[in-house]
Amino acid sequence: MVTLKGAEVSAKIKEEVQEILGTLSGEAPKLAIIRVGERPDDISYEKGATKKMGNFGLRVQSYVFPADISDTQFKAEFQKINEDPDVTGILMLRPLPKQICEKDIENMIDPEKDLDGISPVNIAKVFAGDRSGFAPCTAEAVMEVLKQNEIEISGKRAVVVGRSMVVGRPLAMLLLKENATVTICHTRTKDLKETCRNAEILCAAAGKAKMLDSEYVGDGAVVIDVGINVDENGKLCGDVDFESLEGHASMATPVPGGVGAVTTAVLAKHLVQAWAKRNN
Length: 280
Ligand code: NAD
Description:
Elements (H helix, E strand, L loop, with lengths): L1 E2 L2 H17 L7 E7 L3 H16 L3 E7 L5 H13 L5 E4 L9 H7 L11 H9 L8 H12 L8 E5 L6 H10 L3 E5 L6 H6 L3 E4 L17 E4 L3 E2 L5 E2 L13 E2 L6 H20 L2
Parallel strand pairs: 1-11, 2-3, 2-4, 5-6, 5-7, 7-8, 8-11
Antiparallel strand pairs: 9-10
Protein name: Bifunctional protein FolD
Function: Catalyzes the oxidation of 5,10-methylenetetrahydrofolate to 5,10-methenyltetrahydrofolate and then the hydrolysis of 5,10-methenyltetrahydrofolate to 10-formyltetrahydrofolate.
Pfam families: THF_DHG_CYH (PF00763), THF_DHG_CYH_C (PF02882)
């Protein structure tokens, strides 16, 4: 079984980013990371994204607000960042605290700065098969893993486990755009094992530690694990029991070291694309 390493995909995306950067003059594009509160998951993602932007030669600034900021106050702050001409793109860490209406922010964000595809305009484009907007970075990261490893998608049976708006649904749409035959599974799916076993490309985005083992994987399948979970020993793991796949899958992404590393590279790519669009 071939291990599909996120770092290798990220390095290829870096080349693409540098190619676009080479065509630009002036200051590097700037990413605004918006964080409300001190959730460890958010801080960890922010650190990873900040490091990646630095590594790719891009500017980044974090905007951190207290967890108890009011809806009105946050919206006023958000709008300042949204309208700041020095900010090329925005990553807002979610979920936001309950007192803030996330839907309103989704409607407010400038679609041209919406690097993680949360605005209705960008979501509609993903669902319409129009690739001119920004898709959610994680869903796009799965596509990059497949494409950069030259894994054929067209005509293949692809199964996505998970139907969230962040990963499962947009990923299913991106696979469909590439002419895969797509099945979406979720908590009410009755024949999950059989459905997964029938997949030629199996994408796991359920958020359940090691729930898919070799019994869910057909011979020669390509397995992409989006899950980020902790196992019973407190160790980071995916939705797939990676070790059990040997002798079953043809290729698989590990966790850590798989899709996660690619997600921030896609964010960087979206940032330079936003810059290029604005300056064209
Ligand atoms: P979510 O909880 O919003 O959605 C999970 C989906 O999986 C739901 O649609 C649910 O129906 C389905 N599901 C859950 N248990 C299931 C089961 N037993 N059988 C079948 N379907 C089941 O989670 P999410 O935000 O979509 O994230 C999914 C996973 O991806 C999480 O582990 C998350 O940490 C990870 N994630 C990774 C990245 C990355 O950069 N790699 C980014 C975002 C999320």
